């Protein structure tokens, strides 16, 4: 079997390697099993200089090769072009994108540096799988260095319509670099169609396929069952005093539609007063990318909204909204999902959104909760049993919440069964195996 070479912006830190958690790592775990693997990427450390060569260490069957970034490269490549330009653009948020020519140059330069360091470690029959928007030009840089191995690329985030992508300065060059890969994987058919149309506009083609990412439903369900009886879950249930829990779990990111979600909850309290005092909304949203201006502004906005909503609707013995910007352990969250009567997942745009799938996996099949889901999350294409809403419209979110809270057990079980079947159809393991099989052929 060919060696698998995974390339991702962040490589799991040594302490994370024994117990891989989170989307990408969980998906890849099954692909790695029993395979000779090299995992290459940024260490997460910044220093005075970007490393010219990777530092290599081994953990079981996996070899890790990492590069440190200089502070200047971190700013231009990671914080700048990747997260202040490409992230908003790919989520169709042109108004939030910040372009600087120097950031683009640094992005290209870092991809070149990665390629040079990686090329030295490659063997001709390796299967190289590059992940996400930080590394789009890597394939073309490797080809320039005469690498002949099979090269695959997977985009975890959405791809915008051609007219939106066209606003990216020097976008033609970036688009053309997709064609250096033998296979390009996207989350949904819509994303695949937009990429294909964009490439066509620049006169290039690529082999594009759709590979919706998933989770491992059984292991998440087991974690949820275990955590359900644990001390944190008990404390949460006790604190609810019999009220229904609405739960949101996200990174603090403007793609997740949090202000509109908070407004939607406030509309629920206002437009459907029968739920006043019988629901509590818990939003867990740990700060992410706190050094990008747009993320700091979002945090300020949410602080204000949370204060206003609680000020307006709370009573001396009840606060409707609980908002946490610190992180909560993954297993604890699994238990919280199981307790929640409603999972509230309303991104304005999302590649897939694994939280929606985790919510479904965590439910008690005898008495499952309902999922209110944005129709602009990749997951919406699979989740017929969800209550789909337009995440830009707080009134519609409120209506969705009302429907979820009023739904009888029979309908909840029927909808949940459809969703559980869907998350079992596209698991993390199937995603990785499907992509690699197609790349190999
Ligand atoms: P993210 O934008 O990070 O991922 P998502 O898919 O929802 O979004 O979450 C990925 C993982 O992070 C999940 O396992 C989730 O449980 C975890 N996570 C999210 N919020 C958390 C929190 N508050 N505390 C602890 N864990 C949390 C990107 C794309 C998505 C795509 C994934 C995978 O933006 O669209 O689904 O990659 O491809």
What does this entry look like structurally?
By secondary structure, this protein is an alpha/beta fold. The chain contains 16 helices and 14 strands. The protein has an 8-stranded mixed sheet, with helices on both faces. It is globular, with a radius of gyration of 22 Å. The mean pLDDT is 95. Residues 22-23, 156-157, 213, 249-251, 284-286, 327-328, 330, 333, 350-355, 358 line the site of adenosine-5'-diphosphate-glucose (ADQ).
Main sheet makeup: 8 strands, mixed
Number of E-type strands: 14
Task: Give the helix tally.
Answer: 16
Please provide the ordered H/E string of secondary-structure elements.
Answer: EHEEEHHEHEHHEHEHHEHEHEHEHEEHHH
Distance between the termini: 13 Å
- Quote the average pLDDT: 95
Q: What is the gyration radius calculated from CA atoms?
A: 22 Å
Bound molecules: adenosine-5'-diphosphate-glucose
Task: Report the uncertain regions.
Answer: none
Structural class: alpha/beta
- Proportion of residues in helical segments: 40-55%
Residue fraction in strands: 15-25%
Give the neighbour order of strands across the main sheet: 3-4-2-1-5-6-7-8
Shape estimate = globular
């Amino acid at each position: 079997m060919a060696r698998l070479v995974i390339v991702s912006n962040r490589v799991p830190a040594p302490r994370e390697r024994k117990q891989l958690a989170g989307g990408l790592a969980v998906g890849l775990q099954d692909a790695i099993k029993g395979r000779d693997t090299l995992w290459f990427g940024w260490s997460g450390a910044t220093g005075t200089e970007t490393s010219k060569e990777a530092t290599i260490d081994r953990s079981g069957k996996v070899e890790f090769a990492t590069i440190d970034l200089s502070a200047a490269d971190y700013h231009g490549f990671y914080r700048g072009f990747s997260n202040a330009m490409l992230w908003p653009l790919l989520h169709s948020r042109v108004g939030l994108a910040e372009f600087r020519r120097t950031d683009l140059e640094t992005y290209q330069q870092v991809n070149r540096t990665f390629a040079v360091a990686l090329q030295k470690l490659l063997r001709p029959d390796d299967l190289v799988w590059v992940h996400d928007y930080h590394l789009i030009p890597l394939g073309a840089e490797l080809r320039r260095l005469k690498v002949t191995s099979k090269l695959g690329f997977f985009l975890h985030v959405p791809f915008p319509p051609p007219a939106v992508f066209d606003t990216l300065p020097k976008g033609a060059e970036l688009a053309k670099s997709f064609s250096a890969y033998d296979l390009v994987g996207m989350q949904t058919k819509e994303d695949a169609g937009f990429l294909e149309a964009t490439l066509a506009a620049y006169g290039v083609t690529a082999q594009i396929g759709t590979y919706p990412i998933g989770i491992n439903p059984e292991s998440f369900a087991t974690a949820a069952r275990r955590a359900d009886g644990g001390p944190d879950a008990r404390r949460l249930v006790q604190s609810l005093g019999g009220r229904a829990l609405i739960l949101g779990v996200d990174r603090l990111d403007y793609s997740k539609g949090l202000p509109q979600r908070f407004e939607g909850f406030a509309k629920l309290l206002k437009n459907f007063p029968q739920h006043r005092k019988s629901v509590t909304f818990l939003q867990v949203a740990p700060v992410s990318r706190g050094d990008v201006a747009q993320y700091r502004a979002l945090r300020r906005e949410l602080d204000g909204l949370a204060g206003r909503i609680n000020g307006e609707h709370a009573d001396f013995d009840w606060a409707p909204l609980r908002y946490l910007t610190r992180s909560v352990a993954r297993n604890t969250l699994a238990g919280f999902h199981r307790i929640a009567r409603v999972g509230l997942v309303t991104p304005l745009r999302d590649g897939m959104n694994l939280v929606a799938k985790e919510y479904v996996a965590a439910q008690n099949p005898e008495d499952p909760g309902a999922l209110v889901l944005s129709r602009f999350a990749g997951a919406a294409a699979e989740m017929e049993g969800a209550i789909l809403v337009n995440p830009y419209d707080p009134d519609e979110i409120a209506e969705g919440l009302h429907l979820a809270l009023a739904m009888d057990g029979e309908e909840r079980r029927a909808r949940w069964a459809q969703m559980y079947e869907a998350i079992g159809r596209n698991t993390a393991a199937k995603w990785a195996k499907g992509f690699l099989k197609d790349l190999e052929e």
